[in-house]
Amino acid sequence: MASTLHQFYAIAFEENLSLRQLAPVFPTARISAHDLYLQVEPDGGLYVFPFGAVVTYDVPTERREPELARLFHLGPKLTTQVIREDYSVLEDPSFSTGIAEGMLRVDKFTPARAGIVALTMAQSAAMEYYERIVDQLFTRAASFVERLERRGTVPVRTRALYRFIGQAISTRSEVLTVLHLLDKPDAAWDDPAMDRIYNDLRAEFDLVDRYRALELKLRSVQESLELLAEVARDRRVLLLELAVVFLILLEVAIALVEYRKSVSGASRVAAASIEAPARSSINRRAMLTPRPLLLESRRERYHGELVGGASDYL
Known about the structure:
By secondary structure, the chain is α+β, with helices and mostly antiparallel strands. It has one domain (4-238). It is built from 8 helices and 8 strands. The chain has helices at residues 19-22, 61-74, 111-151, 159-179, 186-190, 192-204, 207-288, 291-313, and strands spanning 4-12, 30-31, 36-40, 44-49, 53-57, 83-91, 98-100, 103-106. Strands 2-3-4-5-1-6-8-7 form an 8-stranded mixed β-sheet. Strand 2 and strand 3 (36-40) form a beta hairpin. The radius of gyration is 47 Å and the shape is elongated.
């Protein structure tokens, strides 16, 4: 029997895919808890995974594009920027199962083995998408940390920082959901050959090392965000304390102004109360003085002024 080359093609979207919503679109498909499988004539197949990956094998381009168009018809908001990968599996009865020359070689190609290859490729495509997202998060976190190193503080407006923190938490949660996808499928436990295929493909696509690198980057981003959040919180606390001190000083200043006003008003009232009796006593004395005496005193004062003026003239 001659060798047969089986071509796999994987595509990963940013959005997750609901298998239940896809059931009406692919009425003849077989749906399980982990994937949707549609047989494509004559000998191909299409796998849809809920984490946003689609894998086809032995489906030519002119046959594959209409099937993908059905997905876009169901979800018109699916992103056009996707991850695409392809891989080849060579079937030959004389081969022993394993990786050779960058290609999986199997002695027999079965639907179950095709499912193992499709799952591994879907995981690899989804991993590449998350690698890009985590790299963007890592770059943004580095920019915030660089600003903190250069200026010693975070931006006054922290909305962008908090939105970035929320995005990082959401991405981390999505990446953690991929962790269970790296678990060995049930079919690999029953067939030693499938178990070897799965392990070889995981090593071929570096799934374990790539996931560990994702975890390290996410952990670094998380530590940076915790530091930035703590600095932002300390700054807010400092601003709040300064505002409290300012309000206290303002209240003390207002109290001092009111006190000075009250003291000034009291002193004016006291001075007026002292001056009023003195004026009344003078007026009373003037009223009690006899009129002849007043005229005499005025006459004497006038005579004295005339004598003084004459002496000055002489």
